Amino acid sequence: MVLGRPVTLRQVVFGLLLVFCLTPWASPPVALALGLVLAQVLGNPFVAQTKKLTAKLLQYSVVGLGFGMNAHAAVAAGKEGVLFTVVSIFGTLILGYFVGRWLGLGRHVVHLISCGTAICGGSAIAAVGPVLRAKDEEISVALGTVFVLNAIALFAFPPIGHALAMTQNQFGLWCAIAIHDTSSVVGAAAAYGDQALQVATTVKLARALWIIPISLGTALLFKQQGVKVKLPYFIVGFILAMLVNTFVPAVRPLAPLLVALAKIGLTVTLFFIGAGLSAAVLKAVGARPFVLGVVLWAVISTASLYVILQAV
């Protein structure tokens, strides 16, 4: 009993793990792993609450990371990632269409998984889903697919980067292109180094702006009328934070604190994401959508890695 209310074992464990994620000993990969273990062993006692908090917490954390960025360096990184972004987005969407047809999947699921892989994971799916007028189960399957692959990428990418002796710039660029969700991109890059984090965050958020034209293109392609396109306003917040940090010297003493809070927010976000990947969610994805997600991810990961190692 706490304050006169009954408390279950999994609620206690959830609370203890959450507190641990607020400490310096926790990192994004560790937080995700703890969430995954909790989801499989005891289950998430606050599914609805964590699902609601995840998107907002991620957005606030990304804005906070902007206070650790320099606008001049960000512009340079953004320019370097433009060509990679354009080629990889349209290449992924086209490949997804043909692989999806080969697997016999519905057009909505194929388009959602392709957009999630091409742009920015769950954010892209959440934006494109209403434009597509996709069913809840179609959106859930697409989200489940990219979240599982996100979890794998967060653990796999840093060791691969070290094994290949990738520079901070190379690794940050690779993360931004080849990992779906912004949370996992930032988490993997943060584990590699501060410069990788800056490059990955800048290029990924520039990539996320493609949500707008892709959503509009989706409405035309699927002949949907009267739909609203959701704008990623948190990207505007990130840009403003970066500009303030660069051009308003009075704010700079606060920047380290804001960035530290943002990194804690990101760690908690990944704990929430892991806690949401229950066995039921994994089972609901199904084999064929997961195969589509794996094929698209494998192609974009290996192709972008090869090009980056050769050209950057």
Using only C-alpha atoms, the radius of gyration works out to: 19 Å
Q: What's the domain count?
A: 1
Give the % helix.
over 70%
Unreliable stretches covering 5 or more consecutive residues: none
Measured distance between first and last alpha carbons: 58 Å
Let me know the largest β-sheet.
none
Tally of contiguous helical segments: 15
Structural class: mainly alpha
Number of strands: 0
Strand content is under 5%
Order of helices and strands: HHHHHHHHHHHHHHH
Shape: globular
User: Overall pLDDT, averaged?
Assistant: 87
Description:
With 312 residues, this protein is mainly α. It has one domain. The protein contains 15 helices and no strands. α5 (107-120) packs parallel to α7 (136-163), α5 packs parallel to α15 and α6 (122-132) packs parallel to α11. The longest helix has 33 residues, at 71-103. The radius of gyration is 19 Å and the shape is globular. The model has no long low-confidence stretch (mean pLDDT 87).
Furnish the topology, listing elements before pairings.
Layout: H1 9-21, H2 28-41, H3 47-65, H4 71-103, H5 107-120, H6 122-132, H7 136-163, H8 168-178, H9 182-192, H10 194-208, H11 211-221, H12 233-247, H13 255-275, H14 279-285, H15 287-311
Helix pairs in contact: 1-2, 2-13, 3-12, 3-13, 4-5, 4-10, 4-15, 5-6, 5-7, 5-15, 6-7, 6-11, 7-9, 7-14, 7-15, 8-9, 8-10, 8-15, 9-10, 9-13
